[in-house]
Design goal:
3-stranded parallel beta sheet; 3 domains; alpha/beta; Arc Repressor Mutant, subunit A
């Protein structure tokens, strides 16, 4: 007994005619009839009563119908499992990004990614510098400026904005009316000598 014969049997049982069954399966009616005849020979039983109104299941055919549907469901689950396995990701991937992006954004998405892809290992390198993909320091890099060299695939994923904040009490003591006033203010920010990207030099 072959699954392909059972598949033709199921189509004929559901359609009631070999012509309609052939249309569902994409074959001619002769092929459907030949497959069913072969299945009956293999089992040594009669599965259909052939008549002017089409193919009608015999009592034995009715019993086989339930079993064939169970086989069909099992084959479907097997195909789904294999397809899902092939679609999941595996291996190791290293992502480089500035600390803030790595800790606040990538870490959140990584959890969901690893849950759906249990064979995937994600390494996040959170360092304040520009990563070299050509030297394989990372596989993907998130940067605040567009690379100017290298054969890279680059995509803009979001706008990155920096803001300056101050406590109201501080501004009362040190009003900021222009850039000159801002430069005289004391603040917490990047160390000028360690700024790795001009995009982060936000003090005008």
């Amino acid at each position: 007994m072959q699954w392909d014969d059972l598949r033709h049997f199921l189509a004929a049982a559901r359609a009631g005619q070999v012509t309609a069954a052939g249309l569902r399966l994409g074959v001619d009616q002769a092929t459907v009839g030949r497959r069913i005849t072969q299945l009956e020979r293999d089992l040594g039983v009669k599965l259909f009563d052939r008549g002017p109104r089409g193919y009608v299941l015999t009592e034995t055919g009715q019993r086989l119908l339930g079993l064939a549907e169970e086989v069909e469901a099992t084959v479907g689950r097997l195909a789904d499992a294999v397809t899902t396995r092939m679609q999941t990701l595996s291996g190791s991937i290293r992502i480089g990004a500035p600390e803030g992006v790595a800790s606040q954004l990538i870490s959140r998405g990584t959890l969901a990614l690893c849950r759906t892809n249990p064979d995937l290992e994600v390494q996040v390198v959170a360092l304040p510098r520009v990563f070299s993909l050509s030297r394989r320091e990372v596989d993907f890099a998130i940067a605040v400026q567009r690379p100017e060299r290298g054969r890279l695939t680059v995509r803009r994923i979001a706008d990155f904005k920096l803001h300056i904040y101050a406590a109201p009490a501080y501004l009362e003591r040190h009003p900021v009316r222009d850039k000159a006033d801002l430069r005289r203010c004391r603040g917490i920010g990047y160390v000028p000598d360690l700024i790795f990207s001009p995009e982060l030099d936000y003090i005008p």
